[in-house]
């Protein structure tokens, strides 16, 4: 049995960037070959794209996790790592992408519209790309950054030209079945329709789609029943058609009160997408009243009685029978004409172009805030400093010195001084905490000595190769700890 899924939670994770390579060229008769470590490849993005051949979010219901490919690490010989393979996910037109907090991130309407759900991590630079006047042979490389990871809520709002609304068992599904080739489930009990049904209707040279929205009840706009799950499917409809059951035997119900009750629900419902498709509120959409079940004598008499009341409101009124197909032709061509008028006033939306927003002049790209948990501490917030910290090999003194130079050139040191930071103050960047030492010169060219060593760092916890070798000889009893 097929399912119609119109709301899913998608867990996306982009690929991780590959590490850069720290390598030195070694070739016969080529002393001082220099660094030749390649860059790591960027991680693959996770991208959502509208495909006109996709009509439901069913695939994401059964496969809610999406992951981009990881970038490959760089290699010696100036060989860059391979880029991570991106993941392209096909979604139907009308998909709204939201965060778990309800913030709208994208409204995907129109074939080809795309949204980057998760950005791939940046690959680390190899030591060949880090060469400078001060660092002629860097003994380190940058680490690849993890890709973006987050949870997204996908909601499908059907893109239909005409939305049929009405109480349960008003005959909406029957009307769709006779207007189009759709074959929805039809029965004589309330709430037979549990998912929206879409049908394609041909009227002369005009082709349009009709959405059968499952039965609404009073209080639907406040979440009663399944109203909110269904109301979103008529947000994009250009024309709303009230399908009225003129043969109902329920006490206290009649065509006028039914329409008034549904109008109150439509007026109270506020679409989550403000200004959706430029159509305005649901209360302002063109209306058509369809008086159904006119093949029953009592219903036909009631329809004739209430017809003048609806005409006073300025709405086109059609008396039909979905069973005998009476009055369907005038209704079909009237709907086609209203749809054509809408299409002329609202051209089909084009795929949205990607917008690139350059950094404003004078924007430092970071902020320094007081740490609320550490007295006298500070937190540095910004895309660049946070990424630089994540790219650093903290077991390599030269890499740590390179990080200090980058932060100083960005202006972090100067900003800390302005805010009154004291020597030894706790400075947090991303998930790393540092003790600020203004006595160490940073941001100025300092000639490096041995690879992996920064002369500005007097103390280091990293054990050198000579120390490790001596400790090994001591353990084997070859020398004593006092021997040099």
From TrEMBL:
Pfam family, one: MMR_HSR1
Domain OBG-type G, residue spans: 160-340
GO cellular component, one term: cytoplasm
Gly residues bias (residue ranges): 68-79
An annotated Gene Ontology molecular function: magnesium ion binding
Binding site for GTP: 166-173, 191-195, 212-215, 292-295, 321-323
Every OCT domain range: 358-438
Domain of life from the UniProt record: Bacteria
Keyword Metal-binding recorded: yes
Keywords: Cytoplasm, GTP-binding, Hydrolase, Magnesium, Metal-binding, Nucleotide-binding
Protein name: GTPase Obg
